[in-house]
Write a structure and sequence with these properties.
heterodimer; A: 477 residues; alpha+beta; Glutaredoxin; seven-stranded mixed β-sheet; five-stranded mixed β-sheet; B: 2 helices; elongated
């Protein structure tokens, strides 16, 4: 751009009373030859009678880093030597060296916000005129092509429209977390291609995430990439598995997640987009495409991603992340591979033993009612009224988990021999019963509204060292 | 004037090298067949039967196994296949 290397330059806009006030001063400076360029951000005919440069694209405003208009800058040899912001007669006289400047104006008037400093504009202007440092290939979409259709054509979506990952949006996403854009998050299965923080940000933009969700997305990626989570298996299995993310700690409230009404359903942006960012990363970086390496026989709606915060409002409830070693007050995510959800409905339940029995009967159907001995996991989301029954009887997380393990033991005679997991719970069980779940394979969390005698079972995939184990990771800024 | 929109590529911007399928050997004379059990249910039964059938024909067999079908094969399993086997039969499904 043609920014003068020497002399005074002025940035202003017509939609600013102070800029209109100092228009005669600009004309005076121009007449005297000191003012080399006037840039107008909104109306190239303002101020009238002057040779104004059209800066509606805000290139000069960006180059001069104008935050307020009017901004008067003195330049020498292409560098800034000083500036005056707003109208302060003394400052302007010092900067210009003219003792008689603006004598009939008030002593001072504050300026207005520069259009280049409007919210979200910084990244737009950096993307347009600056060095973003972004490395991803840039793909142009020429008007009047529809970018949404182009993204479908390129097979970048999960079947629903995605947000166009423009450089400005990706820059904003990256500013939501503190990790450098070039850092490698990990190698995404099934292809094993490297995923940088920048590529994760691109996919998070497409998923619809806001920048403040990005630390949660990165923590979930870190967790999912741990070997024990077996993301490769979850992405390629015929059983059809998705990633469930439980969010604990202050970040959930900070980013506006919903752990109450419809917590596992639709309607909340953070709940809806964080797990989708993982899916798009797996599809776009890892190449997990249905019918390709994703061999899901049927799949399920939750494969799009399930993410919800645990209800931590009751101090009697020990949150999931704390039970898994995360200190109080620290935000964390827990990833859990899952194959669908089912509701437990028992509106007659009044005692904890009855609630436990109802949940256990439903848990026994997981995978196959005649299968036991471990090798499968489940997460039980205890709803508000089920929790009330437990709490009033003095039960806590550990008590509920232990009771559910006990209540899901199955009579050996009902279990098919070929359905007993060889490495599961059978070995030490003995006796007439076989545990349905191996130790550690049942997770219990709290979510949902306070009305309704329901809980939800999130059915796991293969569990334990041979399958997918839940992984908890701290959410770092 | 309407600016063109710029999108950033969400993919890894690279492809895995694609190699053509190796031609099957004209005969099994002198060939070592790797029988790889990925630990899917009953995969061992199929591979046991294949081992017997290959044995009847005097074909040398190398038995290999992944620790679990849910995770990629460890490097030592892949190295053994590469070092010792000319062809491989893998038991994939239940």
């Amino acid at each position: 751009m043609d920014l003068p290397d020497d002399g005074l330059v002025l940035v202003l806009k017509e939609d600013c009373p102070t800029c209109r006030l100092i228009a005669p001063v600009a004309a005076d400076l121009m007449r005297r030859g000191d003012l080399k360029a006037v840039y107008s951000q909104d109306d190239p005919a303002f101020p009238g009678g002057l040779a104004v440069r059209d800066d509606r694209g805000l290139e000069a405003s960006f180059a001069l880093n104008a935050e307020i208009v009017p901004t008067l800058v003195r330049r020498e040899g292409g560098r800034e030597k000083g500036r005056a912001v707003g109208w302060r007669r003394g400052e302007w006289r010092t900067l210009t060296g003219l003792d008689d400047l603006g004598g009939d104006l008030p002593d001072e008037r504050p300026g207005c916000g520069s259009l280049s400093a409007e919210p979200g504009m910084a990244e737009e202007l950096l993307a347009r005129y600056g060095d973003t440092g972004l490395k991803a290939r840039r793909i142009g979409v020429a008007f009047p092509e529809d970018p949404f259709e182009r993204m479908f054509d390129r097979d970048w979506t999960d079947g629903l429209p995605v947000v166009p990952p423009t450089p400005a949006r990706v820059l904003r996403m990256l500013r939501g977390a503190s990790r450098p854009a070039g850092d490698v998050v990990g190698f995404i299965p099934p292809s094993g291609h490297a995923c940088t923080v920048e590529k994760a940000a691109i996919n998070a933009v497409m998923a619809g995430c806001r920048p403040e969700y990005f630390p949660v997305v990165l923590a979930a990626l870190d967790a999912a990439l741990e070997t024990e989570f077996a993301w490769q298996g979850l992405l390629s299995t015929t059983m059809g598995a998705g990633v469930c993310i439980v969010v604990n700690g202050p970040v959930a409230r900070r980013i506006g997640m919903n752990g109450a009404f419809n917590a596992l359903g639709h309607g909340n942006r953070a709940n809806s987009t964080i797990a989708r960012a993982l899916l798009l990363t797996a599809m776009n970086i890892g190449g997990a495409k249905p019918g390709g390496v994703d061999r899901s026989t049927l799949g399920h709606p939750g494969k799009r991603g399930l993410c919800f915060p645990e209800d931590e409002s009751d101090p009697a409830w020990r949150p999931l992340a704390r039970s898994r070693g995360i200190p109080e007050g620290v935000s964390a995510v827990t990833v859990f591979g899952f194959c669908g959800t089912g509701i437990v409905n028992d509106e007659t339940a009044r005692k904890p033993e009855g609630v436990t029995s109802s949940i256990a009967l439903s848990l026994n159907a997981i995978n196959h009612p005649r299968r036991a001995g471990g090798g499968m996991g489940a997460m039980v989301v205890v709803g508000g009224e089920f929790w009330r029954v437990y709490r009033e009887a003095g039960w806590d997380r550990a008590g509920i988990e232990a009771a559910l393990h006990k209540a899901t033991e199955r009579p050996r005679s009902e279990i098919r021999r070929e359905h007993v997991d060889a490495d599961g719970g059978e070995a030490g069980a003995g006796g007439d019963t076989i545990p349905k779940f191996a130790p550690g394979d049942l997770l219990v969390v709290r979510a949902g509204s306070n009305a309704g005698l329901f809980s939800t079972i999130i059915q796991g995939w293969g569990s334990g060292p041979k399958g997918s184990q839940p992984v908890t990771r701290e959410v770092k800024p | 004037m309407i600016d063109n929109l710029v999108l950033l590529d969400p993919t890894p911007e690279r492809r895995r090298a694609m190699r053509g399928r190796t031609e099957p050997p004209p005969s099994l004379d002198g060939v070592t067949v790797g029988l790889v059990d990925i630990r899917k249910h009953q995969g061992d039964k199929v591979l046991d039967r294949l081992e017997a059938l290959f044995g009847e024909r005097g074909v040398e067999v190398e038995r290999l196994a992944k620790p679990t079908y849910t995770k990629p094969a460890p490097d030592d399993v892949i190295d053994r296949i590469a070092a010792r086997c000319d062809v491989v039969v893998e038991g994939l499904a239940d």
